[in-house]
Amino acid sequence: MESDGPPPMLTSDEARALHIANGDVKRPGHLIALSATFLGIAATCVGLRLYARIALRRRVNVDDGFIVLALLFLVGSLVTYIQEEKWGMGYHASTLTPNEIIHFFHAFWAMLWCYCGCLACVKLSLLFQYRKIFGNHASRFRIVANVLILVIGISGLWTVLSGIFMCWPISYVWTRQGDAKCMQIWPLFIGNAVLNIVTDLIVFLSPIPLLSRLHLPLRQKIILMAIFLTGFFVIIISGIRLGIFIRSNGATDFSWEQITLGSWSFVECAVAIVCASVPSLKPLVVHVFPKLASTFASRIVDFEASGDSHNKLKKINNDVEKGPNGSVGLFAQGGEEEHKWLDHTERLKSVQGGVQIVTAVDTDVEKK
Question: Which of 46, 49, 82, 183 has the most crowded Cβ, counting Cβ within 10 A?
């Protein structure tokens, strides 16, 4: 006669096999594929941005360095996901062995500060770009940009260092052995997520007052604002990620929840890199689609060129002279060259109460 005692305990492998048979598992391969896809998109945008800067503009700036650093952090995040997948991500924590849990948390710890470092570098890249574009045309904004760079730098450094040193010794994060002092982990995660959203709002909204003062037709002004406000996609994703954090409420089934949380975290970082690179791609669009550019793009201010030209030009010669390809326009004196053709159709200069567009006319010259 069989006893009515408790069922025998399953081993970790047996429990995992039972979950798989019942379909009770999140496929970690889906997260890896999603992350690799978005990494490819972000890397393509950064590559095109660097091509536009190096091959077409023949210069790189501080903001380019920060966006490359952000991309490296994103690559690091994908590496940590691959390690997490190896050590049980997507399975219930109850099915993991102690050794798997140690290695999983080691990879999870690295993922945290890669994520925070990526977002901090993207925001610093945007602020340096804003300062270069608008700072020479609005001295107050340059001061604001410098203050924001300091604030974002400190907050970004905090999120990275708090992720690295959440426990001391650091190894306690994954070994849980010995005596250690740790921050309150769950409030730390929530606090850093809220801090990221607040700083996102500050960074993406900061140039809007200047854009609204541009002397442009309404449609062109709307297009410009739309380009700069693409960053709100990042804020929406950050809000979704925060909601997932709050919903999980410090759940102990960490390896199971990480699939959803990791997916949104990676997408947030990748989309942030893409949004930060979009405004820098106009020279490439003009180069590849000159006819399209002459119809549409040339009517939108080339902010980047205007910011650089303000730094380089000491004096504008108002004489009409012959330029490249038989065109007529303005020549500039000073800077690295005695005469430098203004190869961008619009220029900005400071005016009281706003920013004015100064247009160089490009026409064909008939040969006599």
Answer: 49
